[in-house]
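User: I need a structural model of Bacillithiol system redox-active protein YtxJ from Dyadobacter psychrotolerans for a docking pre-check later this week. Nothing fancy, just the predicted C-alpha cells so I can convert them on my end. Input:
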Amino acid sequence: MNWIAIKDEDQIQDIFKSEEYSIIYKHSPRCMTSLMAYRQLKSEVSGVPDVEIPLYIVDVISNRRESQLIAGTFLVQHESPQILVVKKGICVFNTSHENVSLQIAMEHIDQVA
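Assistant: Understood. Predicted C-alpha cells for Bacillithiol system redox-active protein YtxJ:
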C-alpha cells in the first residue's frame, strides 16, 4: 500500500464517487499525537498484505480546505489525527487520536464487506 497525498478537491470527489473502499488519514505535522499515529500507520502499512485499497493522506495544516471538505463530504466531525474508511460516498468507519490504526480500519472493512 502506498500513500496518496490529497491536495485538491477533485481527489475528494473521486473518492466520494468510488464504488470501492478507500482509507483517508488526516494528519497534522504540528501535533505530537498525530506524529505518533503517523509513525504507527507507516509501520502497519509495511505489515499489511498487498491489498488493493487506496490509502490517502491529507495534511490538515497545508491542505486545510481539503481537510474541511473531507469532514463535510463524509459527514464526520473534523479530528486530527483521524482515519476514515469510505465506500460509495459514505464513511463507514472513522476514529481519531490514540485509536487511529490501519489494522482496525482493515478489520472493519472485513466486517463490512
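Before docking, keep this in mind: The mean pLDDT is 89.
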